[in-house]
């Protein structure tokens, strides 16, 4: 508008009226919050908590004869920052994840180190039986990317944590530590995430509606060079991770004897419903 030459006072007044009218219309009809694209670091204060819900759903199941084996799963949990501990001479901060599904409670812990350049996953641990994930009731197995699991929950976890080959309650130390985030957080930045050849990429900022708040999040993508069809997205913000949205395509469904029964696609979604970030 600054390039428009104003020739008469009348024209100026008219232009102002027109622009005011347009501005009023935008105010009334457009409630989209601007996206905050400023960089941030992940909240790291002891006592901070996040409550969340999860869903595991299936789609594109074939052949139809195996449809009756499948049902969607839902759960909820709380992530809490508990304390500092020393592992192999390194001070790490414990994040405790308490998760409930089908009236069963599961517990896992991750140990992080925060620096000026990255948020590092140093180690993790699962507590309880080695069969910590809810099993399906039809003796089915789910296979994908070389991993075979007794539930779709376990399959998603195993693919995201490829070092998990030990019994639960074993402390798994990441060597080298995994860079969960790198700083500064900027769009179109990518880095090597973990073996085998998994890359994490910052794509762009977008707003998520959490507890009636518009929260600006950096959408990140995990990319397997050999598994381009799958989709793994996480949404990070200055108040923590707000959402995960993962898709596995063409999961092989077998019986207990290893006979292929069919194929299915699956989606895993985690949504934060409320949070409390302690100010340092």
Please describe the topology of this protein.
Blueprint lengths: L8 H21 L19 E14 L10 E15 L2 E12 L2 E11 L3 E10 L13 E4 L2 E3 L2 H9 L11 E11 L6 E6 L3 E13 L2 E12 L6 E7 L2 E15 L5 E17 L4
Antiparallel strand pairs: 1-2, 1-14, 2-3, 3-4, 4-5, 5-8, 6-7, 6-13, 9-10, 10-11, 11-12, 12-13, 13-14
Q: Tell me how many strands there are.
A: 14
Number of helices: 2
Shape descriptor reads globular
How many structural units, i.e. domains? 1
Q: In terms of structural class, how would the helical and strand content be classed?
A: mainly beta
Report on the architecture of this protein.
With 280 residues, the chain is mostly beta strands. It has helices at 9-29, 152-160, and strands spanning 49-62, 73-87, 90-101, 104-114, 118-127, 141-144, 147-149, 172-182, 189-194, 198-210, 213-224, 231-237, 240-254, 260-276.
């Amino acid at each position: 508008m600054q390039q428009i030459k104003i020739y008469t006072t009348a024209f100026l007044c008219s232009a102002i009226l027109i622009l005011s009218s347009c501005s009023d219309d935008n105010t009334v009809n457009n409630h989209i919050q601007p996206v905050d694209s400023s960089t941030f670091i992940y909240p790291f204060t002891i006592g901070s908590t996040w409550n969340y819900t999860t869903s595991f759903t299936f789609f594109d199941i074939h052949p139809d004869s195996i449809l009756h084996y499948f049902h969607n799963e839902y759960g909820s949990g709380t992530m809490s920052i508990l304390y500092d501990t020393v592992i192999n001479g390194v001070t790490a901060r414990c994040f405790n994840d308490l998760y409930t599904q089908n009236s069963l409670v599961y517990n896992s812990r991750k140990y992080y180190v925060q620096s000026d350049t990255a948020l590092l996953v140093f180690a993790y641990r699962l507590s309880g039986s080695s069969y910590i994930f809810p099993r399906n009731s039809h003796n089915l197995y789910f296979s994908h990317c070389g991993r075979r699991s007794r539930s779709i929950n376990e399959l998603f976890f195993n693919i995201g944590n490829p070092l998990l080959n030990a019994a639960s309650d074993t402390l798994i130390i990441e060597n080298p530590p995994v860079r969960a985030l790198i700083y500064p957080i900027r769009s179109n930045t990518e880095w090597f995430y973990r073996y085998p050849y998994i890359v994490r990429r910052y794509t762009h900022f977008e707003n998520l509606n959490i507890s009636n708040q518009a929260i600006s999040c950096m959408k990140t993508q995990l990319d397997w060079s050999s598994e381009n069809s799958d989709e793994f997205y996480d949404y990070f913000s200055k108040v923590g991770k707000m959402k995960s949205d993962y898709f596995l395509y063409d999961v092989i469904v077998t019986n207990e004897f290893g006979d292929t029964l069919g194929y299915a696609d699956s989606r895993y979604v985690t949504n934060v419903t409320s949070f409390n970030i302690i100010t340092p």
